[in-house]
Specification:
Elements (H helix, E strand, L loop, with lengths): L6 E4 L25 E4 L25 E4 L3 H6 L2 E3 L4 E7 L22 E8 L2 E8 L11 E2 L4 E4 L10 E8 L2 E3 L23 E3 L2 E8 L5 H6 L6 E2 L5 E11 L4 E8 L2 E9 L4 E11 L8 E11 L2 E12 L1
Parallel strand pairs: 14-20
Antiparallel strand pairs: 1-12, 2-3, 3-10, 4-9, 5-6, 5-8, 6-7, 7-10, 10-11, 13-15, 15-18, 16-17, 16-19, 19-20
Length: about 325
């Protein structure tokens, strides 16, 4: 589960720009528990990038807000995309496959970077666009009248994307609008009126998932949800704890601690070297001669930034 704990900025909702609609949460999940915001609109036009808080959660030229799932397993289970405001469907696309895009695949998209999606006209030039939806999930059609909260489809992995998420972009005519800072394009920092119907707190990074395994897992297995187990044999080759997280900054620290029936088994502090959208770290010990003592082993993963705890999660595995 996601339990990102450091709330840096809480946007003030329900005070939109003059004439703008308000928008509700476009995904049927609980922020900080079953989904999280991975990226925001890029506020820097210089070739660098920054989100509306001057934080790292964006990338150069990003024009929307990304609501991400913790794994492809969660995507496969199905998470609905919801209309964020009333309107009329401008257009839809469906039928593109769900897959992690590679550099070699990008030309094959033929400009369809959005993947499967829906665009909705809210009137007076305001449009919202929903991207990367699951193949075969789109439930609406062009010209259909839509009401706020109506199911449009499901979060997927179609188009130009590396992880399952919904990308929602909002435009006023030809202008890309950051719903967190609609009246301050190209400016970061401060507290702004927003287009959101209710408060959506900004979290500058945190843990997506933690787990135990019998060796250092592949990143693809961590992202898919396949890595991790709640039981393991005492003769497993190793006892490894991992933390899967988002939004790192240089000098963030991840602490990994394993405690067993006989006390502390493993402790490690990893200093992160760079800004990364998603990452994982793992550590543990090889199995001793005779195997691990049977019983419950507890894992703790903590991320700190500038000496302040950013997030903390625990996990248990039973050795038998």
């Amino acid at each position: 589960m996601l339990r990102s704990s450091l709330v840096l900025i809480s946007a003030l909702a329900a005070f939109p720009a003059a004439g703008a609609p308000t928008f509700s949460l476009p995904v049927d999940c609980e922020l900080g528990e079953t989904c999280f915001i991975q990226n925001y609109v890029d506020q820097d036009s210089s070739g660098e990038h920054t989100d509306f808080t001057c934080g790292p959660l964006s990338y150069d030229g990003h024009k929307g807000t990304d609501f991400a799932l913790p794994s492809t397993d969660a995507m496969d289970a199905g998470v609905n995309v919801l209309a964020a405001a009333d309107g009329v469907v401008q257009g839809t696309r469906d039928g593109m496959i769900d897959k992690i895009i590679t550099t070699e695949d990008i030309p094959k998209l033929n400009g369809k970077d959005c993947g499967n999606g829906v665009s909705i006209d809210h009137g007076d030039g305001w449009v919202s666009q929903y991207c990367h939806m699951k193949k075969g999930s789109v439930t609406v059609s062009q010209g259909e009248q839509i009401v706020r909260g109506q199911v449009l489809g499901e979060i997927g992995l179609s188009g130009r994307t590396q992880f399952p998420h919904l990308h929602i972009s909002i435009r006023d005519g030809d202008r890309v609008v950051d719903p967190f800072a609609p009246d301050h394009p190209g400016v970061c920092g401060g507290t702004y009126d927003t287009l959101w119907e209710s408060d959506i707190s900004y979290v500058g990074g945190g843990l997506i998932r933690v787990g135990f395994d019998v060796g250092v897992p592949k990143f693809a297995s961590v992202k898919s949800g396949m890595a991790g187990r709640d039981r393991m044999p005492s003769q497993a080759k190793a006892l490894v704890l991992f933390g899967y997280a988002f939004g790192s900054l240089p000098d963030d620290e991840m602490d990994l601690t394993i405690t067993g029936p006989q006390g502390t088994v493993f402790e490690q502090t990893v200093v992160l070297k760079k800004t990364q959208a998603q990452y994982f770290r793992a550590g543990g010990k090889r199995t001793p001669m005779g195997g691990w003592p049977k019983g419950a082993y507890y894992g703790e993963v903590t991320i700190t930034r500038d000496g302040v705890q950013l997030d903390h999660q625990t996990i248990t595995v039973t050795v038998e």
